[in-house]
Amino acid sequence: MNVRSCVGKTMIALCVAVCGIGFGGAVSAADTVQVNIRSLLNARSVTTFSNGKLYTWTMGIDGGGGGDGYGTHSAALHLTPSYTGHTLPDSALYPANSNHPKMILNFSNSDSASFQTHYIKGTDSVTIHVPQGNYSGVYLALMSAEGSTAIKVVLNYSDGPATSTFTLNDYNQPLATGVFHVDSNMQKWSTTNVPVDNAFHNLDGFCVTTNSAKTLDSVKLVKQTAGSYVTLWGVTGVGSNITTSASQRAPKASFDVVHLFNSRDGRVQFSNVKTGAELSVYSLSGERVARIASVRQGTLTLGNHNADATVCPGVYICELRQGQEIQRVQAIIGR
Questions:
Q1: pTM for the whole thing?
Q2: Cα 89–Cα 74–Cα 301 angle in degrees, nearest 5
Q3: Which of 198, 213, 243 is the last residue of a domain?
């Protein structure tokens, strides 16, 4: 991989140092961890907008995945500049509140191809591997359509499993016991990106209480209601003695030489990118602000305009994944 840096009014600097983002090592006590579920994602449930174009959902939130999806704020305003309804946030970030810690989901306006959610049909199940640690709670962002869903939770500790159950009501119905809203009061979007039905559709959450005296390895969710349809949007853990940052649970990173080139278009270009490579962009606080997958071999560009991944001027950590190979650089995007 080569990286080309471009100069606007402010010099853009690139280096292979990773600063203040926690890409590895121990997480501090009582920390919040965004669990990496990218390998589980199998559905694109959100219409996004970037570079003047809509990228429509393909496997939605209702009708067994074929009925409807959600949209981001920018997608809604592109379709209807006067739209005043509530939508998913462009950032996919939900700040901490009295119900949940900070949660970052898996959709992005800069992501035109990748999956965003994991759907569960019938009585299927999904196992979420977490970085080993002592968790006090695992927060799930998920929703049930076509009726309510009973879910069995299997917590796999280092010394054996423990089980519990909870119920998700339909995403257009009042909350079940112990469930909270991650987001609420949204319209769903048709296959042609037309807001439809009422404006009372929700994205729910549930905290699975865990034994902080034990080391947690994984969480298995078993869907026990055959006729409903469930989508999982994100997983956030709260605990201590966590060995590796969940958002970076990946093979050891390797770095190519970073080449610096000066130009005047305010962008950073990754060259020699393979088809299927994924570029993720993080703020220095560790929040992912953009993600895009390469649909062909060539280049991926990060910048404040006319780029594959568009970001505001600032300092970012860029991570490019190509198979088992990972490259990370720091980029300062000028104005």
A1: 0.69
A2: 100
A3: 243
